[in-house]
Amino acid sequence: MKDLLPEALQLLEQLVMLESPSFDKPLVDRCGSLVAQRFAAIGGRTEIVPEGKFGDHVIARFGAAGGRPVVLLGHIDTVFSSGETQQRPFRIEGNRATGPGVFDMKSGIVLMWMAMRTLGHEHPVTVLLTSDEEVGSNASRTLIEKEVRNARAVFVLEPSLPGGVLKTARKGVGRFTVKAIGRAAHAGIDPSKGINAIEEIAHQVLTLQKMSGPGSGTTVTVGVVQGGTRSNVVPAEAAVEVDTRMTSMLEAERIANAIRSLKPVLPGSQLEVRGGVSRPPMERNADTVRLFEIARAVAAEIGIDLEEGSTGGASDGNLTSALGVPTLDGLGPVGDGAHAASEYIEIDSLPARAALVRGLIDRTVLGFDGGEPRL
Ligand SMILES: [Zn+2]
Q1: Ligand 1 centroid – CA 105 distance (Å)
Q2: Residue 285 C-alpha to ligand 1 middle, in angstroms?
């Protein structure tokens, strides 16, 4: 795998320099078509799945058609705006590679390429790369669910936790908008005729913030507040956007019910609540544990002591796990700083992580069929 490193770094540089902000379809498409080309060049049967608003999704299938595949899942889009590479182009300094999206998750795509380049192609493997993961996966959700439904396992090449730790649990995410509707009035002439929607939403903000349960891991965060038109008008409308995170489906339902049952405090005012759970929690279930045990065994053979952890951030692994498909996440290289300018990967982790992914595919196809894995 080490001899592949120069070519892998070249591909990584190309992918980072082909910027792919989620909302810039032409740029995401350009990056996606290079990805498709590179997987086709190593024997993948590639498909470009057209998407109207976001970039097209890319699929590369390997091995015999019809069998139950292992799915390598990731995304082409990044959180950075176009032009970011002018400020900080792809760079290698010592053991670190930097640049926008290098960790989340252009290097994950490179690992998939390295694994598939060196794997015998008798295994049915589907490489699925979507274009809107960073903005909630609304455009790719149906495709992801269709492609993984029959899969033996899903390996998500998203960034690892610090030190290369895998992600065996992720919190779920719910997004809500709570709108208060009052009544406008002149603030000087007849303020008593008004109902102040900002005052109403202020009450609701305090109630929402108190819904976080420190012991349960559930958090409720009011992240955006809007309201009012002029300082001399009693505001008729105010709204907040709320992010919720939770570790279990039970908590997801409890919180959604609590937010939908909010009651107005000021006489005459009204509340409108929209939203819901957008990504269910990825719970650490028996399948995840078994997959992690396989990963640990493969890693031990490469000389790595692999660990597992959990995160409050969600990925498409949340979707596949909620469908009951065995899912292991955080298989990307060692690095840190996802979504930040400090983002980097450790170059020498690329061959080992690619070998881990390849070994995982091997063992999963041979021994993991929903029953006991053969280690
Ligand atoms: Zn990501």
Answers
A1: 5
A2: 22
pLDDT for 291 beyond 50: yes
Q: What is the C-alpha to C-alpha distance for residues 304 and 310, in angstroms, rounded to an integer?
A: 19
315 Cα–ligand 1 center, Å: 7
Q: Is residue 374 part of a domain?
A: no
- The pLDDT of residue 366 is 66
Statement to judge: residues 240 and 150 lie in one domain: no
Last residue of a domain, one of 225, 250, 279: 279
Containing domain of residue 167, as a range? 2-171+281-367
Q: Residue 178 is part of a domain; what is its CATH number? A: 3.30.70.360
Rounded average pLDDT over 129-137: 93
pTM over 0.70: yes
Domain identity same for 214 and 89:
no
Q: What is the pLDDT of residues 25-42, one digit of tens each?
A: 999 999 999 999 999 999
C-alpha–C-alpha distance, residues 191 and 309, integer Å: 55
Q: Are residues 145 and 287 in the same domain?
A: yes
DSSP-derived secondary structure for 207-269: HHHTT-BTTTTBEEEEEEEEE-S-TTEE-SEEEEEEEEEESSHHHHHHHHHHHHT----STT-
Distance 28 CA to ligand 1 centre (A): 14
CA 234 / ligand 1 centre spacing (Å): 43
Residues 322 and 341 in one domain: yes
203 and 241 in a single domain? The answer is yes
Q: Report the separation in Å between the CA atom of 232 and the middle of ligand 1, taken as the mean of its atom positions.
A: 45
- Per residue in 94-109, pLDDT (tens digit) is 999 999 999 999 999 9
Count of domains observed in the chain: 2
**For residue 153, how far is its CA from the centre of ligand 1 (angstroms)?**
19
